[in-house]
Each structure stands twice: as structure tokens, then as C-alpha cells.
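Internal tracking record. Fields below are filled automatically when a chain is submitted to the structure queue. Please do not edit lines marked as system-generated. If the sequence contains nonstandard residues, flag them in the REMARKS field before resubmitting.
Queue: standard
Priority: normal
Entity type: single polypeptide chain
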Amino acid sequence: MKMRAAVMYEQGQERPYAKTKPFVIEEVEIDGPKDNEVLVEIQAAGLCHSDLSTIEGLRPRPLPTVGGHESAGVIRDFGKSVTDLAPGTPCVVVFVSSCGHCMTCKVGRPNLCETHRAAKSTGELPEGGRRLRLNGEEIHHYSGVSCFAEYAVVPRSAVIPIAEDIPIEDAALFGCGVITGVGAVINTAKVPPGATMAVVGLGGVGLNSMLAGLLSGASRVIAIDTSDEKLALARQLGATDTFNASDADCIGQVIEATQGGVDYGFEMAGSVDAMQTAFAVTRTGGTTTSAGLASSEKPFSIDLASMVNEEKTIKGSYMGSCVAARDVPHLLSLYKSGRLPVDRLRSGTLRLDQINEGFDRLADGSVVRQILMTHT
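SYSTEM-GENERATED OUTPUT FOLLOWS
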């Protein structure tokens, strides 16, 4: 089957992206699903900072590739072993599938599936090989999803059926931003009621972390960013305090306001500077969690003696430590009840041919989550 898709041929393109066009809209051929795979008609896909990092060359990928990893759509077909899905069912597609038999899956951590990780590194699907072709030549999958396209073939375990009354542009956010941001707070850090926390970096993931803190009953939820507009949005969403990271004494201000720092610090910007801030504002005995995926060429260093003396804990959080089949339905129920208003994080919609302009806005920091409506 032929479809339109956004193809990346090279990384590290300079801005403005509207001119250099890191993504080119092409007619791509997509094969049908193999055993244990699902064909999804992609209807909405989010533009995420992880995608921007790939454009910038901070996260090397096999090329050429069809981009995108956060999406929702409708199930159209599936392989013969898939017996629990029906065509026409709306769904969320998550960016990590699970094989169920590797060591991390066996111990209940499917978000770290070793089979998925190995396939992603080669631009393939976990069942083996690729389902995408351009001019007769195979091209690569991105994070096992490749949702900047009209259709995607993905593993069955990456597909979460949802109710028909959930707006598809909101559902897409649950494929990455919601599960990563909320999961970092409730699954990885396990923030208890009454705790204090600070989120550094107020993109889609960071604001979801902030919402999760409020949902968890944290007594103080502090938002830190360099954008006054995002700090204003954080206050509207319920942040108890906001601080501009551009201020030279930002860390000191937070420590003074909290009488020693917060119980839980979160780095959500994908920046070593942001991680240093999050760690610095975490109090003695506290925990700092990072889900930002900074460049591997920029390591984060700490004073080991201070970490020991102060008994600070550092955690990484990938996909919010989520079990997708369990957590996505639960988070959607919170959304439907109004307790997780992720719809307020959307910054408008785009057509597929507007994708590069969308990444310019994301790089400017002027938006939170833009949604690509792939069939408009």
C-alpha cells in the first residue's frame, strides 16, 4: 500500500527547518503486518523534543527513516496470531513494545524490553526486518513506530485500544508525553502525598510530570523553566511556585523558598544544565529523577562525596517505568474524569506538509505539544 510519510535523510540540518527541510514528504510503500503485528491508520501524532533531538543529530538513527513515535489512530489490520483486536477500533500507539520473554520483560519492566531495544538500534521491527520502502528500497522504522505517516505497522504490544469518545488529538499524547511525564512521578520516583517536588523543563513531558505531582497530592509543586510563557501556563495548571532558570540565583531562590530544597527533583529538558539544577534543588536525603535523554556526549558529573554524605538518590526513567497495557487505560480514565487535563497542553494542529515549520516552533520553545493530523 502507498501512503504519504515524512522521511528524514540526514541529521544535523541547520535552522530554519522550514527552509532546510529535515523532513521531506514522500510517497512511501508500506507492507501489511506480519504475525504479531498491527496496521494502524495514524490519525494524530505529537511533535516531541525527542524528535527534535534526532533532527539536531544528538540521537543518531539509521537513515533514511520515517519519523515519529507518539501517536493514536485506528486499527485496520493485524497478523494471524492477533486475536484480541477488531478492525475500526481506535488506539494509542506507545513507543516501546515488549516481547514478554527477555529478562527485563520477565521481571515486570517491559518498558526496558531488550528485544525492542535491539530492533530499534537497527531501524527494524521486533519481529524482524522492515515494512517500509521508498522507490523500491527498504527504509528504516523510527522507535518501532514511524507515525509521521498515514499508516504504521507496529508490534501488537505497542497498541492499546481506547474508547471511541476520546478525541484522537488528545489520545496521541498518551503515546509518549503522558506516560513518560506522569510515569516518572508515580512509577519511578513514587512521589507520596505531602512531599515537595520541582520539575525542571516545562515541555510536554515536564508539564505532565507537574500534573502528576498535583495528582499525587504533593504539597508543593515547583515549576522551573527559561520561558516566562511556560511558567505562566504552569501556574494556570496549578504549580504552587515558579522560577525562571535564567536567573543567576535560581537555585538559591528555590532552596531558600523550600528551606533546604525539595524531596523530589525532576529533569525533563534533556539538558545537563537542567539536571544540575534539578540535583542542586533536591534536599539532603532526596531523589532526583531524569527522563530528559540528554546528548550522550555531554555527561553529568557529581561530587561523589556529597552524594554519599547527603544520601541523595539519582534515578533514570524511561517511558515513565510504565507497563503500557496497565497504565495507559488508567491514565485515560483520569483524563476522562478531568483529573489529568492533558488537553490543555496542546498547542494546535498541523498538516503533514507543515511538519518542518512545527519543529521550528518547538525549537523556539514557543509551543508545548503540536499535533500532526496526518490525513488532513
